[in-house]
Amino acid sequence: MGFSQSKPEFATVLADKHVKIGEDVTLRCEAKTEGLTGTWEKNGQKLDCVEGKTFMTQTGGSFLLKIRDAEEGDEGKYTLILRNKSDRTSCSAMVTVEQNEWRRVEWNQDGVIDALKTFEISNEKVDTLRFLLYGPVGAGKSSTINTIKTVFEGRLFINCLAASDITPSSQSLYYEKCEIRKDGLLPFAFNDFKGLEEEDSGVHAKDIISALKGHMKEGYLFNPKIPLPENSLYYLRDPGLNDQIHCLVNVIPADTISMIKDDYIKKMKEVREAASRMGIPQVVFMTRVDRACPLTKKDLRSVYKSRKIREKVRECSMSLGVPENCIFPVWNYHEETEIKEEINCLMLHALTKIVHFADDYVVKRSNRETSLEK
User: Fold this and answer.
1) Which of 7-11, 293-297, 309-313 has the lowest mean pLDDT?
2) pLDDT (0 to 100) of residue 167
3) Are 250 and 284 in contact (CB under 8 A)?
4) pLDDT exceeds cutoff 60 at 362
5) According to the model, what pLDDT value does residue 159 have?
6) Whole-angstrom distance, CA of residue 216 vs CA of residue 146
7) What's the rounded mean pLDDT across residues 57-68?
8) What is the rounded distance in angstroms from the CA atom of residue 136 to the CA atom of residue 261?
């Protein structure tokens, strides 16, 4: 009389692996019994041996997979399926491949802070470089300002009320300028704009364009149905270069780029096109990188070694039409109760770049105005 085989079981299972490009990957596990067949899969697809690259061995109940010279394409979920005549079982492991660092960040904040403190605008008639933050509700516009102020204040700063996932409505009701201080007033400031919402509650695209041109005064109460009229007390008729926006900062959450509504993308492109016609530089602060990439959440200093973040940068570039070198991953303070230098340094890296972009724009506009006067 025959008997049925018991279900295959693992004595040890596969372990997740994190390797650098060029290193070998070894995955191994043990079955409790012999006489089993094993099949390897990657991301749900059967994995075959490749000469000089992928090796699979079985010795009794011991199974081994080796991948030589790891590269980006080797990253994924690897599964070993054990079978006998009556049943099967499986275990899996994630292999992550750390890229070579594709951007360099100064991870010591003191020198960068000092450089920004002493930064001099190239036109003495412009006393403040002005940045306009713009993007969907909950993307992190107000949190970005809070983070920048935290960097320079040396303490957690939450003066700008930020929208949350629980109450996803814009908290920015008025057009306000947020100045930055560190042993005195720094030469740059940020204007937080009401976030993109549904058509009947979000900011009017014409208001954003008015702000870019310098027509909008601080204190203006946003009206989603009616843009700022020219006869308003908050309309500046003849703005100078000092009143205008010198850089448009689109704020986009890294973890939900693909979920941003088409109407929002269309409105953002409309604003970008208006900024382009004015020659205003445009960048993206890509927030919530900790939610988009487990490697980055574990170690923020690996943000520019993360394949996932690089993919998000490319996705953002394709969606908005912004060059990849103008997209900056950042981590805003949101649940932390203590200062973290790596959060500061990543923000300072982005801030240093956009300060120079804005100053370049001021120089270009100044030269144009000078040539027209001659």
Assistant:
1) 293-297
2) 46
3) yes
4) yes
5) 66
6) 23
7) 95
8) 9
Note whether 38 and 14 are within 8 A (CB). no
* 8 A C-beta contact, residue 302 and residue 240: no
Question: Which one has a higher pLDDT value, 5 or 205?
Answer: 205
Q: Token pair for residue 112? A: 């960068």
The pLDDT confidence band at residue 282, using thresholds 50, 70 and 90, is very high
CA 160, 216, 138, 308 dihedral sign is negative
Return mean pLDDT, the chain.
90
The tokens describing 140, both together, are 């992190």
* Interatomic CA distance for residues 215 and 245, integer angstroms: 10
Look up tokens 């949101």; give the residue. 334
The answer to whether 172 and 194 have CB atoms below 8 angstroms apart is yes
Residue with the two structure tokens 């750390």: 98
Pairing of strands 129-134, 247-253: parallel
* Residue 218 DSSP one-character state: T
State both tokens at 296. Answer: 């980055």
**How far is Cα 330 from Cα 148, in angstroms, rounded to an integer?**
11
CA dihedral (300, 303, 309, 310) in degrees, to 10, reads: 180
Burial of 258 (0-12, 13-18, 19+ CB in 10 A): exposed
Q: How far apart are CA 191 and CA 358, in angstroms?
A: 14
Tokens 């006393």, located at residue: 127
Amino acid occupying residue 16:
D
- Whether this prediction's pTM lies above 0.85 is answered by no
What does the pLDDT average to over 301-321? 93
User: Would you call 374 exposed, middle or buried from its count of C-beta atoms within 10 A (0-12, 13-18, 19+)?
Assistant: exposed
Nearest Cα residue to 106 out of 341, 361, 310: 341
What is d(CA 75, CA 372) in angstroms, rounded to the nearest whole number? 56
pLDDT at 310: 93
Three-class SS of residue 318? helix
**CA–CA separation, 57 and 49 (whole Å):** 10
Whether 164 and 148 have beta carbons less than 8 Å apart is answered as no
Structure token digits, residue 180? 């930055």
